[in-house]
Design goal:
GO terms for molecular function: transferase activity. It holds the Pfam family GST_C. It comes from Pandoraea anhela. This is Glutathione S-transferase. Strand 3 and strand 4 (about 65) form a beta hairpin. A four-stranded mixed β-sheet has the order 2-1-3-4, with helices on one face. It has eight helices and four strands; from the N terminus they run βαβαββαααααα. It has about 200 residues and is α+β, with helices and mostly antiparallel strands. It has helices spanning about 10-25, 40-45, 65-75, 85-115, 120-140, 155-165, 180-190, 200-204, and strands at about 1-5, 25-30, 55, 65. The two termini are about 30 Å apart. Helix 1 (about 10-25) runs parallel beside helix 3 (about 65-75), helix 1 crosses helix 6 (about 155-165) and helix 4 (about 85-115) packs antiparallel against helix 5. The chain has two domains: about 1-75, Glutaredoxin; about 85-190, Glutathione S-transferase Yfyf (Class Pi), Chain A, domain 2, CATH 1.20.1050.10.
C-alpha cells in the first residue's frame, strides 16, 4: 500500500490526495504538524533531504517527492494522463503551475491566512498579487472555450492548477473578475472522488 506523508494544510499534498481518491487507490496517510519539526528529523530527511511534504512511499519502499512528479507516477496508464500531444500539453501546465502559479498564490496564502503576518510582507504581497492576477487572466482566457485544461477531459493538469487557484481568496485574491476560472473550480469540485482539503470543510 502507498503511504502519503503530508500536512493538514499543504496544497501540494492535497493534489496527491485528490488523485489517489479519484483513482480509488488505497493509501495510508501520515500527517505532520510542520512546526513540531518532525520533518526535520533524520528519519524524514532520508526520504526528502529538504524536509518538505508531500512524500509518497511506494509499496516497494521507494520514496518520491515533488507533488507533480507524484501525480505523473500515479496517473500513468489512466485517463488522468492522456497520450500523444495531449500528454505534452498536460506537462506544459504542470510546469506552468510550478513556475507561475505556486509562488504568487501559495506565498500570499501563507502570509495572509496561515502565518497571519501579512504586515511583514506588504511589498511582496503586492508583487505576488500582480503576478497572480496575470496568471488568472491567462487561465480565464484559456477556459473561455474549454471545460478542462487539456483535451476537454479532467486530468492531472486540472488537479495541479486547481489547488492553489481555488484557495486564492485565502491569499487576498478576488476571483469575481475571472468567471471562467470560478466555473472551472466548481466543475473540479463536482468530479468523482473529490475530497476537500480538510475534514472541517467536509462537514461544514
Amino acid at each position: 500500500m502507498y503511504r502519503l506523508h503530508d500536512s493538514k494544510l499543504s496544497g501540494n499534498a492535497w493534489k496527491v490526495r485528490l488523485l489517489l481518491s479519484r483513482l480509488g487507490i488505497p493509501f495510508e496517510r501520515i500527517t505532520y504538524v510542520l512546526p513540531e519539526g518532525k520533518t526535520r528529523q533524520p528519519s524524514f530527511l532520508r526520504m526528502h533531504a529538504l524536509g518538505k511534504v508531500p512524500v509518497l512511499e511506494t509499496p516497494s519502499g521507494e520514496h518520491l517527492f515533488e507533488s507533480n512528479a507524484i501525480l505523473c507516477l500515479l496517473a500513468q496508464g489512466t485517463d488522468m494522463l492522456p497520450d500523444g500531444f495531449a500528454h505534452a500539453q498536460v506537462m506544459q501546465w504542470l510546469f506552468f503551475e510550478q513556475s507561475e502559479v505556486l509562488k504568487p498564490f501559495a506565498s500570499a496564502r501563507y502570509w495572509i491566512s496561515i502565518a497571519r503576518r501579512a504586515h511583514e510582507k506588504i511589498d511582496e504581497i503586492s508583487a505576488w498579487h500582480l503576478a497572480g492576477k496575470r496568471v488568472l487572466s491567462i487561465l480565464n482566457t484559456h477556459l473561455a472555450t474549454r471545460r478542462f485544461m487539456v483535451a476537454e477531459r479532467y486530468s492531472i493538469a486540472d488537479i495541479a492548477l486547481f489547488v492553489y487557484v481555488s484557495m486564492a481568496p485565502e491569499g487576498g485574491y478576488d476571483l469575481t473578475p475571472f468567471p471562467n476560472v470560478t466555473d472551472w473550480i466548481t466543475r473540479i469540485r463536482s468530479q468523482a472522488g473529490f475530497v476537500p482539503l480538510t475534514h472541517e470543510e467536509a462537514v461544514a
